[in-house]
Specification:
This protein is of the alpha/beta class and 210 residues long. The chain contains 8 helices and 10 strands. The strands form 2 sheets. Strands 3-6-2-1-9-10 form a 6-stranded parallel β-sheet, sandwiched between helices. Strands 5-4-7-8 form a 4-stranded mixed β-sheet. The mean pLDDT is 90.
Length: 210
């Protein structure tokens, strides 16, 4: 056999970084994390690719991850008055793009809305109730639920929620850690971690303390 060529400094640095993540991988393995896909991720293809790579890494290292997103940075205001068009835009256009990007890294992402299984139920006063049963089924089967922040309305219609409060409600019901983008810092609970998603791999660097 011919011995492998001696690796250069970059390869050695990469190997050291991987080994250094082992303690944190052990610590995070089996934990549930709810992450909001911020507007930077939804609007920029490069940042979305890096973000989805982070989520794929977390999945394969044993983290049970739930993603939550809203209508993105370019949601037309008139859609709030058209429930069918709102659902099509958020759960169709925005969600399918995010699920497709995730499945370039892992084929385990599955999309749903808060209406499915009445996972999110909201009234006119802004109160949100959570039934995490559907999410637990997906998580237990190794899937990555991607939740559009559209809730079942107790009046029989649908309600569009901001992603941060929807994610906070889901994290509480799942006893999960919560990661928010910087632009949503004020909308989440004090216990939430806040990361700057305009920087590539911000989620992975935060969770693995890199």
């Amino acid at each position: 056999m011919t011995p492998e060529e001696h690796p250069g400094p970059a390869v050695q640095d990469a190997a050291r970084t991987l080994v250094a993540t082992l303690p944190r991988i052990r610590e995070l393995h089996g934990r549930t994390v709810v992450v909001v896909a911020g507007h930077h991720v939804l609007a920029d293809e490069g940042l979305r690719h890096a973000f989805c790579g982070d989520i794929g890494f977390l999945r394969y290292s044993g983290v049970r991850t739930v993603l939550v997103h809203d209508g993105g940075p370019h949601l037309p205001a008139w859609l709030d008055g058209d429930p069918a068009a709102l659902r099509t835009h958020v759960a169709g256009h925005v969600q399918r793009g995010l699920v497709g990007s995730l499945n370039e890294h892992t084929t385990l992402a599955v999309g749903l809305t808060g209406e499915d299984g009445r996972t999110l139920e909201a009234d006119g006063g802004g109160e949100v109730r959570v039934d995490p049963g559907v999410l637990r089924v997906f998580l237990d089967s190794g899937r990555i639920p991607v939740v559009s922040s559209i809730a079942y309305g107790r009046d029989g219609g649908i309600r569009h929620l901001a992603a941060a409060p929807a994610a906070a409600a889901l994290a509480s019901a799942l006893d999960a850690a919560l990661v928010l983008p910087a632009e949503d810092a004020q909308a989440g609970p004090p216990s939430a971690a806040v990361v700057d998603m305009s920087v590539p791999h911000a989620v992975l660097r935060h969770l693995h303390r890199l």
